[in-house]
Amino acid sequence: MLGLIIPTLEQGLAYGLLAMGVFLTFRVLDFPDLTVEGSFPLGGAVLAILVVSGLNPFLATFLAFVAGALAGVITGILNTKLKIAGLLAGILTMTSLYSINLRVMGRSNIPLLRTKTIISVLEGWGIDSSYVSLVAFIIIVLLIKLLVDYFLFTEIGMSLRATGDNPVMVESLGVNTDVIKILGLSLANGLVALSGALVAQYQGFTDIGMGMGMIIVGLASVIIGEVVIRSRKIPLATLGVITGSIIYRLSISIALQLGFAPTDLKIVTALLVILALGAPSLRKIMIQDEFAEHLLEGGDQHAGIN
């Protein structure tokens, strides 16, 4: 059982930053950003080529975040300055990043098994190899969560939240919503790329196709988290996103244990999203049915008394 829980927690935390980036665009900024499927492998590509070249893995991980942030800036500029629809702007950037990622990597796959990474560095500090990834991801994800929570309560962060809720009102207050959108997309895709860098170090390689389907993974984590922790308060909302990522990974692990083939995981993901999205409606229907049944029982009792 422990052999299932620890890898699930590790993967859930690593992909939790991806979910947090999706949360910032879809929930906070109300922007349908598909750049994610390009910025996730971009983070892994930048990380891989830098650590293979001998750069410090901590610095390489930070630069992966910067690369993802730049990808978000491109999407923001396409949307705000060139007036390209948000969905299409994300698709254009995502498509371009496929070629960019290949250019960065030089080939479709880079192994990292014999390369110094954050995980191998922490092992050298004496942390048990069985728990080193878990410890590293807990520290990184907790730190990022606290920084994001703090940022969203700053003046700029409040402007970001307000832009997602009512951009017209924010503009009337003299705030440049174009700059705020670019900033939000930059931060979100930076987190997504950071997640890609952590996943690459965890799995021991970077692959050009590792971003495929990541937008669904992020959305599933966000939606599941919102069902589990129903709160609009930012600290609880970000905690819910990370929790949703862990639950999603647990569901995938259980599906594999039950005998589902890896090729079936896409439909498993779709079903999870459908259940999470439909949960409020199903709950409402059940409450209405129970209320109707209670009224009928009350009517029958009243008729019996008469």
From TrEMBL:
Any one annotated GO CC term: plasma membrane
Keyword tags: Cell membrane, Membrane, Transmembrane, Transmembrane helix
Domain of life: Bacteria
Stretches that traverse the bilayer: 12-29, 58-78, 85-104, 131-153, 182-202, 208-229, 236-259, 265-282
Protein location: Cell membrane
Principal cellular location given in the protein's record: membrane
GO MF term list: transmembrane transporter activity
PANTHER family in the cross-refs: ABC TRANSPORTER PERMEASE PROTEIN YPHD-RELATED-RELATED, BRANCHED-CHAIN AMINO ACID TRANSPORT SYSTEM, PERMEASE PROTEIN
Protein name in the entry: Inner-membrane translocator
Organism: Halothermothrix orenii (strain H 168 / OCM 544 / DSM 9562)
Taxonomy of the source species: Bacteria, Bacillati, Bacillota, Clostridia, Halanaerobiales
